[in-house]
Fold:
Amino acid sequence: MHDKEVRKLTELEDTHWWYAERRHLLARSVAGMPPGRALDIGAAGGGNSRVLAAAGWSVMALEYGAEGAQVGKERGLDVLRADATALPMATDSLDLVVAYDVLEHIPDHDAAVRDVRRVLGPDGTFLIAVPCDPKLWSAHDVAVDHVRRYTKTTLTDLLVRNGFQITDLWSWNVLLRPTVQLRRRTSTGSDLEELPRIVNAGLRAIVTVERYLPVKRLPGVTLMVTARPA
Structure:
């Protein structure tokens, strides 16, 4: 991802409705887990790392690019600059790996998933978020350096063939999918941008309502996964 885009997305992270709800989903996913050693791949501004730290985890943030690593350090994170396909951690050394909106940026996503499997202990957890549905491919994906969008089948196959079993797979951003689909038809760049406060609040309210509705099996904009070593 270009340095300018990294900075822009980091500045949005604290207040934008999409990031705020994603942090809630992460907090909900780790609730009840005994804290241990965690790796936040693609940590950027560190919103997810802070969620994990607040829940008692010992967190290492990982960034591939120099700009992303610098942003993390500026925000007080313990940042390691490294390649997600060759993680500089010992085998079976981690209890949790989070890769939210990361795999779609990596050309060799098999290598990345294999190495996550290597560093996770036998009782570890892998939490994943990826953009879904190739039909939604647009200039937004190009602007943020996506390599692909996933389907439930392609994501499941990726994880299973690299040593994971899926314990939960569901759709997020279901209610806003029609809006996203319409916008993507005419988008010319990244959709993540600073919004008027009232618009941001309205979108946050919609995505919050989604927590309580039986829509997780319907088509959305993102796929969320909990996986464990097979």
Q: What stands out?
A: The first strand starts at residue 37 and ends at 41. The mean pLDDT is 92. The radius of gyration is 17 Å.
